[in-house]
Amino acid sequence: MHSARDVTHPDGEPGRPGASRTAPFVRGPFTGLGEVDLRELGRLGTRRVYAPGEALMIEGDPGDRAALLLTGCVKVVAATEDGGEALLAVRLPGELLGELAVLDGEPRSASVLAVRTSTTREIGGPAFLDFLADRPAAALAVQRSVTRKLRSATRHRVDAGHGTGLARLARTLHTLLGSYGTPVEDGLRIDVPLSHADLAALARLSPASVERSLRTLRDQGAVRTSYRELVVLDRSLLARAAGVPLPPEGGGRS
């Protein structure tokens, strides 16, 4: 079910021949990989471009490939028993997608959808497994990546499963801030294009509860919001609302 475009440039971003292969990986879990392994990984597979809303991977399909997200943003979703859709995670450039199904040979446990135009390097399952077998450091990096994702999923189930709506949303924002916080003039922007409906799915709240909780956080001076943008103005206030340990001294207002 791929209508994604193959991209033929050997290096860098689409339309930018000669750009560095390593640049797209700066925020992902493979920054600990050695330069040689990183270059080799970037040579494998086929580069593809996905339009917003297009499926990169579909729940229940065979795990026939893994993909490196080079540009854009994707969300990981799974079907619920009532026919709805649960938002499980968001992924940004430098992250590996679909590796678990390749590693264990089971069907995909979730779908991956492009949130905005996204570029990937897609690597067939056998080639990906051969790469890991030949490069122990790369295999360890993937193992750590999978472990990190499983820990994050467990933490998210706990955080989103109890407490007031305000606390659950604040914990979700606190987690997103730790992974995707980008400094801006007045604080830290959560650099993921999430709608209020997406936040509601992540925090397991109704959209109305998210609206109320965001209003409270704004009134407290913890955050400011605009269309698909959320900036944390005061990390200490967000931590208090989330019921998590406060940042170190000096780590409050960003």
What does this structure look like?
It is a single chain. The protein has helices at 35-43, 99-104, 125-134, 136-159, 165-180, 196-203, 207-220, 235-242, and strands at residues 5-7, 46-50, 55-57, 65-79, 85-91, 96-97, 111-124, 181-184, 187-190, 223-226, 229-232. A hairpin with a 5-residue loop joins strand 4 (65-79) and strand 5. It contains 8 helices and 11 strands. The chain has 2 domains: 5-159, Jelly Rolls (Sandwich); 165-242, Winged helix-like DNA-binding domain superfamily/Winged helix DNA-binding domain (Arc Repressor Mutant, subunit A). 37% of the residues lie in helices and 26% in strands. With 254 residues, it is of the alpha+beta class. Helix 5 packs across helix 6 and helix 5 (165-180) crosses helix 8. It is globular.
Class of secondary structure makeup: alpha+beta
Fill in the CATH topology of the largest domain.
Answer: Jelly Rolls
Strand content: 25-35%
- Helix-strand sequence: EHEEEEEHEHHHEEHHEEH
The rounded Rg comes to 19 Å
Q: Helices and strands in order, then pairings?
A:
Blueprint (H helix, E strand, L loop, with lengths): L4 E3 L27 H9 L2 E5 L4 E3 L7 E15 L5 E7 L4 E2 L1 H6 L6 E14 H10 L1 H24 L5 H16 E4 L2 E4 L5 H8 L3 H14 L2 E4 L2 E4 L2 H8 L12
Antiparallel strand pairs: 1-2, 2-7, 3-7, 4-5, 4-6, 4-7, 8-9, 9-11, 10-11
Quickly list its features:
254 residues, Jelly Rolls, Arc Repressor Mutant, subunit A, 4-stranded antiparallel sheet, 2 domains, alpha+beta, globular, 7-stranded antiparallel sheet, 8 helices
